[in-house]
Amino acid sequence: FFQAEDGIRDYKVTGVQTCALPIFISLFKQIIKKTGLPILDGILIWTMFWITKKIWALYVKPDIYFSRTLINISFSGFSLLFLLVSYYTGLYQKNFRFRDVWKSGFSMMLILLAAYSLLPESLRFSRGIVVMGSLMSIVCLGIWRNILLSLGIIHYAAHEEETYKIGRAHV
To answer: Which residues, listed in sequence order, are joined to residue 100 by a DSSP beta bridge?
Structure first.
């Protein structure tokens, strides 16, 4: 064994091998944070639209048939649009703020309703599903972010953390 700058290692291990593992792990974490979070958010958003459609078809409009292909393409498009708007409204910045969830969610709902109104009648199915799916997505994204904060996966922006601590102290 030889003494290395980062600990004890075998004589067969080079300095490059010693440094590569921590660099690879750090790179892997960054890739997961940058792509994994939006992918999981997209799955959550798509699922909320799907659940809304199921509830809508069961309780609100049980007599209407929703084309599976149209629904899958629409919900995928809604989810991608939701993620795109979320990115540009700051939801995926380095430090998290709850207001970013609300800002991106309500901006997305307005943009989604505007885009939905421009679709031809044959491609529309229900504004109610769009509104309720968006609201459910916003609420679930807020809950999801709270879980990620409690696990330490994402972090508050400095001023948001202080507000949160003060709010918790008075409760």
So the answer is: none
User: Read out DSSP for 32-90?
Assistant: IIIIIHHHHHHHHHHHHHHHHHHHIIIII-TT----HHHHHHHHHHHHHHHHHHHHHTT
Instruction: Return the ∠ at Cα 25 (arms to 24 and 29), rounded to 5°.
Output: 115
- pLDDT single digits (tens) 62-85: 887 777 787 888 888 888 888 888
Closest to 105 (Cα-Cα) out of 71, 143, 73:
143
Cβ atoms of 70 and 106 closer than 8 Å: no
pLDDT in tens, 115-149: 888 888 877 778 888 889 889 998 998 898 888 78
**Cα angle for residues 81, 82, 86 (degrees, 5° grid):** 115
